[in-house]
Request: fold
Amino acid sequence: MSMTNIPGASGIIQNEPLLWEKGKKGRRGMSIPASDVPAAEFPQDLQGEGPAFPDLSEVDVVRHYTRLSQWNFGVDTGMYPLGSCTMKYNPKINEKVASTPELAAAHPMLADEQVQGTLRIMYELQEYLAAITGLPGVTVQPAAGAHGELTGMLIFAACHKSRGSRRTKILIPDTAHGTNPASAALCGYKPVPIKSGPNGIMDVQSIMAVMDEETAGIMITNPNTLGLFETNIREIAEIVHGKGGLVYGDGANMNAVMGIVNARKCGVDVMHLNLHKTFSTPHGGGGPGAGPVCVTEELARFLPTPLAVKDGDTYRLEYNRPESIGRVHAFHGNYSVLLRAYSYIRTMGAGNLKKASMLAVLNAAYIKEKLKGTLPLAYDRPCMHECVFSDALLQEDKITTLDFAKRLIDCGYHPPTIYFPLVVHGAIMIEPTETECKDDIDQFIEVVKMVVREAKENPELLRQAPMRAKMRRLDETLAARHPCLRG
Ligand SMILES: *Cc1c(COP(=O)(O)O)cnc(C)c1O
Reply:
């Protein structure tokens, strides 16, 4: 494949100064007819030191913002194969629905009878998420997955307290997202790491060995962050329940199993969903998101207050919930995110949600099979929505996973997730999602093969990469330690 066939690889990079540097005295955005009345004196008390706005033409302004927009790579620009995050294309219709003025501009303190539509959507979304997970109690308040985890851990603690016990530990597999132990620790639980088996999933024996009556429960991500289905989840749940513990399901990877796996039947008691991963809120840039929490009937009384409920034909917020853990978010949660999820679920329908999951898995399995002769697979077994390769082959040529990822930028691709999960050395984690077509996936596969060939034949290309990006290699540690927030 020649470089010119690769999307985004022909490499025009426009530099762009600040508008203040660009302005020239006397430029105008538009010309208006000369005034035919005498100029009025500008009121004395309004003449101050105000900001000196630059003088700019219309062309200056249009080019400025267009160029800035081109520095951004997003899922609207090309494939975005980050694993563990589900960066899928979200249909634009859901953005339009989310900006409906009657919903977007509704004041959060309006009385229930004035916002029946708003409450109906909350109520119906709760019902849809209950149907999708098999867990009937739902709160849509939490603002993100991690916030859902915290809510779930508070519910664990409330449940154990109601049973007259206070437990101290939570089991968490070594493949878990870092937010899992953090959420458990915030609730005062000690996270106990569980080593995954040699096949990348948890085995029953290791749970049996540590589960005791001091342990409040377990947090399980399924499919896990290696993209593998935890096939022992039911037996593990039985062991945990047998000792009076609870099972938390981290639903961040729901994109692989919508309409296919019923969390309740797997033994899950509490589960969060990331609406900004699975249910059509654009993901990235720091939010907003939403992490609704779904629970069993038994645990519903502990859910945050208020919940949207339906009496006959009317909807209202129910505050009278004496055993609730309380509020976790002001007002209605991140309502615009809830709206997008509602619109997504309604426009897709149950059949298409299931199909989306099947296609997400098919696409990842296709990439895994096509690339497994090119890069070593971390675990050579059926994958779900993402597949993970190791750097074992690149190392032979003294190329790092980072070099490989940076070279993909030169080829017009956003790199996949790298160095995560931590259990795989130099991990390269690819999640294509259901929204990439076969032609685009095939092109990505060809580019990965080309870069791996280059690692052997011309390793400097990788070590120097990116050469066609606006910035070269950034000092990421410095950026994290001393962020420059003033632009
Ligand atoms: C993204 C993610 C989370 C955290 O969700 P946020 O919405 O980013 O807070 C937790 N667990 C897994 C497996 C994830 O992928």
In short: Residues 84, 144-146, 177, 179, 221, 225, 250, 252, 274, 289, 291 surround pyridoxal-5'-phosphate (CB under 6 Å).
